[in-house]
Amino acid sequence: MARMRGPLDLSTLVLAGLAVVLAVLAYVKDPGLPLIGARSGLSFLWFILPRLIPALIVAGMIQVLVPQEVVSRHFGHQAGLRALVIATVAGMLTPGGPMVSVPFMVAASQSGAGLPSLVAYMTSWSLFGLQRIIAWEAPLMGWKFVITRVVSSIAFPVLAGWLVATFYQE
Questions:
Q1: pLDDT at 86
Q2: Distance between CA atoms of 7 and 143, rounded to whole angstroms?
Q3: How confident is the model at residue 170 (pLDDT cuts 50, 70, 90)?
Q4: What does the domain layout of the chain look like in residue ranges?
Q5: Within the chain, what is the greatest distance between any pair of CA atoms?
Q6: Sign of the CA dihedral with 66 first, then 69, 72, and 78 last
Q7: 91 touches 121 (CB < 8 A)
């Protein structure tokens, strides 16, 4: 089972360092720019929080409602190809952005899903998100492009999960 990291992991420290460096560069350009930039960035909280809080609650509810044995049996390390295919389909059907998919993936991980299934899920979500295809790709690029892209890459999530299962030992 994956553990939650503390608030000061490497990615947080890198992002904080980058924010400080960019604030210094903005200050050198104009001393008023860091405050404008900070206000602009923090304004995204009003967009993100209403989506993130329910997504985190849904992920937590799934974690407590779906027994760990069920997740381990169907998506655990020994679940095999069937788990990779189901995870691939789940990734395709997961609506929304990373505010939905990542909390869901964390909940699955904490409930016993194996790394191969998690990799297949995230790869599938990244490549084949239906809402992105319907809202952006098909209208802008056309269905011929979408079908060609999807058909040519449909095996990637399963292949990615299989590679993890074959070459990565937890």
A1: 92
A2: 43
A3: low
A4: 7-43, 49-167
A5: 58
A6: negative
A7: yes
